[in-house]
Amino acid sequence: MTNVLVLGANGQLARNTTRVFLGTTDARLTLYLRRSSRLTNPDPERVRIVEGDVLDPRTLEAAMRGQDVVYANLAGRMKEQAQGIVEAMHATGLRRLVFISSMGIHGEVPGERYRTVLDPYRDSAAVIEASDLDYTILRPGWFTHDEEVSYQLTQKGEPFRGHDVSLNALSGLVVKLALTPGLESRHSLGVSRG
Ligand SMILES: NC(=O)c1ccc[n+]([C@@H]2O[C@H](COP(=O)([O-])OP(=O)(O)OC[C@H]3O[C@@H](n4cnc5c(N)ncnc54)[C@H](OP(=O)(O)O)[C@@H]3O)[C@@H](O)[C@H]2O)c1
């Protein structure tokens, strides 16, 4: 049984992915978020809720103990968050990280130039890629709310294909990455509708 730490657990994609983890796997989840009263525990037998800020190293390290996988679904000060995650993973001996970023951070979307708005995504990805962790960075297109579960992947250095991807497809991919050792290790993947 895999133990997964979900950082930013009240995020839109994180909530959808929690539902997919619980519905399709036997993974145990630790949901880590600020102001935890916003979240109701969906399955007390398998889910623990921890109130914490990712920028608080002590709480973060405590939450990492006993985990197998970290799934970071964050926004805001992402470079500092990435630095804190890498340090806390080193301190606790964790290796596997699935980190949600955004399409466009490498200028890989044909015809689009997202500049400073993506700096936190670009900078946090650089921090993770410079680490020795077993990471997978996802660079998804715009999220949609349909039932579609298919997706296509592009590796770093390849042009991004398409422009959107469903939350359900992304959640399925996060779950697969979290539960399949070695899958797309140390890769940064563009993710769009299949
Ligand atoms: N929507 C799209 O189409 C799209 C496309 C590509 C990429 N993305 C990116 O993919 C990521 C995930 O998307 P999403 O829709 O799930 O984002 P979201 O709903 O904005 O969730 C991000 C979460 O990060 C949490 N967070 C921020 N700083 C934190 C901190 N210091 N400590 C703990 N938690 C913190 C926020 O918590 P609080 O609730 O406490 O603020 C929020 O719940 C985002 O970065 C988003 O920009 C989105």
Q: Cα-atom Rg, whole angstroms?
A: 16 Å
Number of helices: 5
Tell me, rounded to a whole number, the average pLDDT. Answer: 97
Beta-strand portion reads 25-35%
Helix share bin: 25-40%
Q: Sum up the overall morphology in one term.
A: globular
Distance between the termini: 30 Å
Which consecutive residue ranges, at least 5 long each, have pLDDT under 50? none
Q: What structural category characterises the helix and strand content?
A: alpha/beta
Overall number of strands: 10
Q: What is bound: which ligands?
A: NADP nicotinamide-adenine-dinucleotide phosphate
Side by side, the strands of the main sheet go: 3-2-1-4-5-6-10-8
Q: Please trace the helix and strand order, writing H or E for each element.
A: EHEEHEHEHEEEEHE
Largest β sheet strand count, sense and barrel closure: 8 strands, mixed
Commentary on this structure:
- This protein has five helices and ten strands.
- The chain has 194 residues and is an alpha/beta fold.
- It has an eight-stranded mixed beta sheet with strand order 3-2-1-4-5-6-10-8, sandwiched between helices. A two-stranded parallel sheet has the order 7-9.
- Helix 1 crosses helix 5, helix 2 crosses helix 3 and helix 3 runs parallel beside helix 4.
- It is globular.
- It binds NADP nicotinamide-adenine-dinucleotide phosphate.
- The site of NADP nicotinamide-adenine-dinucleotide phosphate has 22 residues, from helix 1 and strand 7.
